[in-house]
Design a protein that fits this description.
The chain is an alpha/beta fold. The chain has a single domain, classed as pyruvate-formate lyase- activating enzyme. Helices cover about 35% and strands about 20% of the residues. Helix 10 links the parallel strand 13 and strand 14. Helix 10 packs parallel to helix 12. It is globular, with a radius of gyration of 20 Å. Bound molecules: iron/sulfur cluster. Iron/sulfur cluster binds next to strand 7.
Length: about 350
């Protein structure tokens, strides 16, 4: 998995570091004073090599920036936002989803893990004290929240912290089934494990190295039975010949394995990309055709399928979800008010209204 491990001199005796040392007793861990020393080991011959070699380098560091932030997908005013917040404990991911936006946005390509958990918790306490309503904080915007948790063991501390918080709820987003480290921890219903789903064939062909659909659904059932909340994301939905049958079958499978009322909310997102991503994907994954369709540029400078295609896709998913569980809050976070009016028959007043709609089962 990792060919080299580096550790910032400031974090040598932190808890996360000790977990990593236990997991990799035979790999030499090199102490460094700056990220530049680590970047020397990234193969910069091409973008393809840079991304691939970065994923094999682990850098345990001391994060200096702001901890609690708004989700980076937060949209310009014309898109409805769901008021998701983030804390980044990691940056980068060992999986290889071909559409992954991190390929074109991460300036540092190595797998970074921030080890100064005490400072992160202090920021969370301060933020929690400033709130008056339920607020979701997610760790999986520029990483997979669970994929490497058996190595870093950070989620245990997070789940225990959030179990006692006043207004905060933790969202762990994943395409893995690595839920064993979560079992046996008392979440007090304050942690939502959020599984990204796609039809089985899509997972096999473009979500490379991730858990199969079957494994993710099994994992969802298991965490649900262990007291966690569960939500699902169909994101990104991909347009291809036969998409209607594939996504119908996906929601039928979910409906056959979960009861109405069991899923806390359901997010739907349709493939988006930024300028530059398609070129990288063609280089890294020859033969992949997901970006060969027609796309239009939105005001957020992201490409999407044309509106009539998006509407058709949303219509199918929302109607199937409605049949499954008429009270289930389902939504897309990067569409306009007109989307809500057309598909949900109401328009939230603001981000807090969207948030209230999503969190009514928390
Ligand atoms: S799981 Fe998420 S972060 Fe990881 S490669 Fe796939 S899209 Fe990117």
């Amino acid at each position: 998995m990792f060919e080299r491990i580096f550790i910032d001199k400031e974090v040598t005796d932190f808890t996360t570091v000790n977990h990593v040392k236990e997991y990799f007793p035979d790999i030499q861990i090199v102490e460094v004073s700056s990220k530049e020393e680590v970047l020397e080991f990234v193969n910069d011959d091409s973008m393809k090599d840079r991304i691939q070699s970065g994923k094999k380098i682990l850098y345990l560091n001391n994060y200096k920036g702001q901890f609690v932030k708004f989700c980076p997908a937060r949209s310009p005013e014309c898109y409805m936002c769901c008021n998701l917040h983030t804390i980044n404990l990691q940056s980068n991911c060992v999986f290889n989803c071909t559409y992954c936006i991190l390929q074109s946005v991460l300036s540092n390509p190595v797998m970074q893990v921030h080890c100064n958990l005490d400072e992160i918790f202090s920021s969370l306490v301060e933020y929690d004290n400033s709130l008056t309503e339920k607020t979701r904080i997610c760790t999986g915007e520029i990483a997979d929240s669970l994929a490497l948790d058996h190595i870093f063991n950070q989620n245990k501390y997070l789940v225990e912290f959030f179990a006692k918080s006043k207004h905060l709820y933790l969202e762990l987003k994943t395409k893995s089934n690595n839920i064993e480290p979560l079992l046996g921890i008392e979440s007090n219903g304050r942690t939502v494990v959020s599984f990204s789903l796609n039809p089985s064939d899509v997972v096999k062909k473009i979500e490379l190295q991730t858990a199969s659909l079957e494994e993710r659904l099994d994992a969802a059932r298991k965490v649900l039975d262990h007291g966690y909340k569960v939500c699902f994301n169909i994101d990104p939905m991909i347009y291809f010949e036969g998409w209607q049958e594939a996504y119908t079958e996906l929601i039928d499978t979910i409906s056959s394995r979960f009861k109405a009322g069991e899923i806390t909310w359901f997010h739907v997102g349709i493939l988006r990309s930024n300028p530059g991503l398609a070129k990288i994907v063609r280089q890294r994954f020859p033969g992949q055709t997901i970006f060969d369709e027609e796309f239009v540029l939105g005001v957020d400078k992201k490409y999407r399928y044309p509106k009539h295609i998006r509407d058709e896709m949303y219509h199918l998913v929302y109607s199937k979800l409605n049949q499954f569980d008429a009270e289930l809050a389902s939504y897309a976070c990067v569409e306009k008010a007109s989307h809500w009016k057309k598909h949900k028959h109401f328009v939230p007043k603001d981000v807090h209204d969207v948030n209230r709609y999503l969190t009514n089962r928390l």
